[in-house]
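Sample pair:
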Amino acid sequence: MSDSPIQKDDRERLVLYLIHDIEPALASFQSLLGILKKGRFDPNNALHNNLMKSCGTAMIFARGILQDMLEYARLKEGRLKTCAVSFSWDELLQEVIAIPAALAEERSIELIIQNEMTAGKEFLDKGLIQRIALNLVINSIKNSPHRSRVWLRLSPDNEGVVLSIEDEGVGASEEELGRIFEESFQARPREAGQYKGIGLGLSFCREACELIGATISVRRRTTKGLAFDVHIPKVSKGPIISTC
């Protein structure tokens, strides 16, 4: 039997990465649980509050890793389908930044929305677009220094909408830019401890964009950091099979 779509060696490496990245999350929860079981949690204790925040951040990482693996597997197996719903762009953007808000706050990163779209409803695959945007925002937060900014920009173009996620992070070399959407690609050594994840988020974004007829690209910002641009057609070119 073939090991595709994800080869055996890749699967084994992904499992090791998963264990590596989820272990700190479990350790944080274990510490907090120990304090709660002894009835010693003090909301005025800075150490206890920091532990609570760490648990929230750890949960975001763990949830993102598991969701990346699940959705990427569905994409590879052809089981992830598109589903159009009515929504507003402002609603979508607000929901996107609400999820990693604790992670951004812990790193003192400001999340900025710049929406140039006029008010109104769209009829597209909100779920996939939201997941693409969320992956890009979390990727930017993880690769940005403390006390920096991440922008979510939305603007019209001739064929639809451009969603741009920009950061003030470490950027990438030309070689890294050329490989950034590859499966399991890590732009920096994992041993450094700064870049967590299993390298599927950006690959998912690329393939999810293809599914809805969108395109994604990456570029260096003129100052510092990276910008990811997602061109979303007003009328989906992908096989939207149902409404929901």
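The beta strands are 82-87, 110-115, 122-124, 149-156, 160-167, 215-220, 226-233, 240-243.
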